[in-house]
Design goal:
Elements: E1 2-6, E2 22-27, H1 29-36, H2 41-69, H3 74-124, H4 127-215, H5 221-226, H6 230-237, H7 241-251, H8 257-260, H9 267-305
Antiparallel strand pairs: 1-2
């Protein structure tokens, strides 16, 4: 509860005694506000307006502060774009001025060079300088012709050396190729010869002399075959008379006279006959290869000279 005193004009609670006070009213604050609320309506409205304005000022200041400190705000972005635009304009102005000064400097250099050239031409084409210039030009021309002749000789010599080197390389390559072919051929020939020896011993010499020993053959196989019937040839060689005659014509040039009188012809003799046949064929093949190698070397040498 609160006590309310009605005072006359000019009186206050401080300068008025309690006994002089009158019309005391004892009432709650809420009820008192209900009674006097309409008296303070304008004041309350103004206070509400002031609070609203203060709140708006607070929000506006906070927004401005945020915009000022926030880099990606719309205002700062607009400000940065404007600054960039002004910077580009200033830079372009500076570039134009720099290009202007460079162009003026280049034009000045060209003008000075042209003036110097004209002065030099005037000096060269007049008086003793003209004669000295002619002598100098003639000396330079003679020196250049001498150097050109020397260069041509060097080029010619270099080409000759290159051709000789190339011909030697071709010749060496041909010789190496012939050697490789000969080595390969010798290797294949040795392999075939070894195989022929095995076949000769396994399928010709051994079966024939095995049958001869079983049938009790005579002293000389060749003479014996010449004077015996066809079935005799067939039993020993599995061939007729014509085939055996061709065989004799093939091997007789390689049979020594000492081989004809042996009793009987041994497998070693038969093998020796075959080896002599192979050696004869080998010598002929080597002779032909040597001729081919010499022909290839001559051809390569002729190409190198051309």
């Amino acid at each position: 509860m609160e006590s309310r005193w009605y005072l006359f004009p000019g009186q206050t609670l401080e300068n008025t005694k309690i006994s002089d006070r009158s019309h005391a009213l004892h009432i709650t604050q809420t009820e008192w506000n209900k009674i006097t609320g309409h008296l303070d309506r304008k004041k309350l409205i103004q206070e509400a307006i002031d609070r609203e304005e203060a709140h708006k000022r607070y929000l506006d200041e906070g927004s401005k502060s945020m915009i000022k400190n926030w880099e990606n705000s719309l205002e700062n972005m607009r400000k940065r774009k404007e600054e960039e635009r002004l910077r580009i304009i200033e830079q372009r102005k500076g570039d134009r001025m720099a290009r202007f000064y460079e162009l003026r400097k280049e034009q000045e250099r060209i003008r000075n060079e042209y003036v110097e050239k004209v002065r030099h031409d005037i000096y060269i084409e007049t008086g003793n300088a003209r004669q000295l210039t002619g002598a100098y030009v003639e000396a330079v021309a003679m020196y250049e012709r001498e150097k050109q002749t020397e260069l041509k000789n060097k080029i010619k010599q270099h080409n000759a050396e290159e051709e000789a080197r190339w011909a030697m390389k071709v010749k060496e390559g041909a010789e190496q190729e012939v050697k490789e072919k000969e080595a390969k051929s010798n290797k294949e020939r040795e392999k075939d010869l070894e195989f022929s020896k095995k076949l000769l011993e396994q399928f010709w010499v051994r079966p024939i002399f095995k049958v001869r020993n079983e049938l009790g053959a005579g002293c000389n196989l060749i003479e014996e075959m010449r004077f015996n019937p066809d079935n005799y040839h067939y039993n020993f060689f599995r061939m007729n008379v014509e085939g055996f005659d061709r065989l004799l014509k093939l091997i007789e040039p390689h049979i020594l006279k000492s081989d004809l009188g042996r009793e009987p012809i041994s497998p070693q003799t038969r093998l020796a006959i075959t080896l002599r046949i192979e050696e004869n064929a080998k010598s002929k093949a080597e002779e032909q290869k040597e001729k081919n190698r010499i022909s290839e070397a001559r051809t390569a040498e002729a190409k190198g000279r051309n």
